[in-house]
Amino acid sequence: MAGSGLSNQAGAAVGALAFPVLGPVGVVAVRQYVAALVLLAVARPRLRAFTWRQWWPVLLLGGVFGTMNLSLYSAVDRIGLGLAVTLEFLGPLTIALAGSRRRLDAGCAVLAGAGVVVLMRPRPSADYAGMALGLAAACCWASYILLNRVVGRRVPGAQGAAAASAVSALAFVPVGVAVAAAHPPTAGAVLCAVTAGVLSSAVPYLADLLTLRHVPAQTFGLFMSVNPVLAALAGWAILGQGLGTAEWAGIAAVVAANAASLATQR
User: Are 56 and 216 in contact (CB under 8 A)?
Assistant: First the structure.
């Protein structure tokens, strides 16, 4: 679980190193290509056997997958990795709290909301466009979870996820061509983007499959709460993005809200 989380956030940080050359859009395009190649090789989906009832949630999932990564990487470019991932993390947290009627979960929602207020407080250096992109990534992640449930019920194994990643990669082909034509890529930038795809897509996917064979899903979800912290540390170590006391307090509030909700569930 630690390796999966560190790989995911380190990959995002390495991908950000290519922003000056490829921009967030170019890095996301390369990441989508790498994710599709890995998932197609692992799952080997039988695309011709899919019915329309299976295809429509797969198509939606592919669109959400690409939009989620594009929103996140654009937010990282503007507000830094730690804050962007923390705001994105509100997506699964909202899904976890939405169906609950426990007073504790209501308190967790208030705590997370307080953390968001701290992160988005008015100040001269605030980048509200970047914050809006982070919240858009959160909405996409919540949609991604809900669509994955539908795809998982209708398509066996990992075939649905692989097909969705292929749809997303195909949609980014013209985007990648346009970016390459406007900004000729360097070998270093392409290497960073490919590394981001491997570390943020291939390694976490395979590591999570192995982990879930030995660790209960609730424990796995609880450990995922530390991802905003890992993102902040990766942003500091790789990108030199430091955070102030208030930002760390906001991140801690969001992490604590998710951890408390999951740790107390039956």
Answer: no
User: How far is Cα 39 from Cα 68, in angstroms, rounded to an integer?
Assistant: 18
Short-list 140, 179, 178, CA closest to 62:
140
- Exposed, middle or buried: residue 95 (CB in 10 Å: 0-12, 13-18, 19+)? middle
For residue 258, count other CB atoms closer than 10 A to its CB.
26
- Residue 84: what pLDDT? 92
Q: Are 215 and 51 in contact (CB under 8 A)?
A: no
Band of residue 183 on the pLDDT scale cut at 50, 70, 90: confident
**Model's pTM, two decimal places?**
0.88
In the predicted model, is pLDDT for residue 86 greater than 70? yes
Structure-token pair, residue 104: 């504790």
Q: Measured between alpha carbons, how far apart are the two ends of the chain, in Å?
A: 21
Q: In angstroms, rounded to a whole number, what is the distance separating the alpha carbons of residues 232 and 143?
A: 24
Beta strands in 122-166 (DSSP E): none
**169: Cβ–Cβ under 8 A, 6 or more apart, which residues?**
32, 33, 35, 36
Q: Which of 41, 47, 72 is nearest to 59 (CA)?
A: 47
Q: What are phi and psi of 95, to 5 degrees?
A: -60, -40
Scanning 17-102, the segments in alpha helix (DSSP H) are 19-43, 52-79, 81-88, 90-98
Over residues 206-228, the pLDDT tens digits come to 787 778 778 777 777 778 888 89
Residues 6+ apart with CB under 8 A from 36: 162, 165, 166, 168, 169
State the sign of the Cα–Cα–Cα–Cα dihedral 55, 59, 62, 64: negative
Residue 223: C-alpha distances to residues 80, 83, 215, 262, 266 (Å): 22, 19, 11, 10, 16
